[in-house]
Amino acid sequence: MNTGNIKKAVKLIRESRYMVAFTGAGVSVESGIPPFRGTGGLWNTTHPIFLEIEYFQKKPLQSWKKIKEIFYDKLGDAEPNIAHEILAKMEKRSFLESIITQNIDHLHQKAGNKYVYELHGTYKQLVCIGCNSEYDMSFADLNFLPPTCFVCKGILKPDMVFFNEAIPEFAQKKSFEEAQKADLLLIIGTNAEVLPAAKIPEIAKKTGAKIIEINIKPSPFTNTVTDVFIESRATEAMEEIGKLLYL
Ligand SMILES: [Zn+2]
């Protein structure tokens, strides 16, 4: 890790008036949550069909069995790591306005962040595919699959974005707005290979934001929009930044 770049990043953070963080799988890996893509990613060992919306609608039980095993049996116990904690402290101390995340793990909120826009939804909430009623997952008994709606007996689906399913409108609108308002974007642990997430850094850059990027290796952003690149795991870099900001 280049300490010179950490210092440059801290200077930008101190000078910023509206910093927004943009996070992905790399923030949560050290909380024990595997990424979908890349080395060690979920799609290397599991075929993603169970997260296709058409498959879910046709075979909700089969889909739910896999979803429960991969998300619900593990995510419930996952705890925020130091990178999440520093982001929460940044918000509390008014260094950070909001987080745009591609993660569905709810760990930013668990760490204490209040303004979190979840581009890919959340595992924490279930939604009825019949009547759109929403439930906190704690109301669902996943010993009996698939979980069903109290109102209409329809099947409940995790409120995360499946393949071939639209991005939640509110989250997308807010994310684009936040990217436009930002004078500093802090990218952490993401290559943002999918749309519309991939557009966020570009939108921020176009409206004049500086870009800090923390990733374990260079990404498509590094040589295009990034101003300060910190080649590091999220936890290490954020811990150092946190120290220099006295968080
Ligand atoms: Zn319903």
UniProtKB/TrEMBL annotation:
Active site positions: H120
Stored InterPro entries: DHS-like_NAD/FAD-binding_dom, NAD-dep_sirtuin_deacylases, Sirtuin, Sirtuin_cat_small_dom_sf, Ssirtuin_cat_dom
Alphabetic keyword roster: Metal-binding, NAD, Transferase, Zinc
Residues the entry annotates as binding Zn(2+): C128, C131, C149, C152
Every Deacetylase sirtuin-type domain range: 1-247
GO MF annotation, one: histone deacetylase activity, NAD-dependent
Keyword field contains Zinc: yes
The enzyme's E.C. designation: 2.3.1.286
Transmembrane spans: none
UniProt cross-references to CDD domains, sorted A to Z: SIR2-fam
SUPFAM superfamilies in the record: DHS-like NAD/FAD-binding domain
PANTHER family with a match to the protein in the record: NAD-DEPENDENT PROTEIN DEACYLASE SIRTUIN-5, MITOCHONDRIAL-RELATED
Protein name per its UniProtKB record: protein acetyllysine N-acetyltransferase
Organism: Mariniphaga sediminis
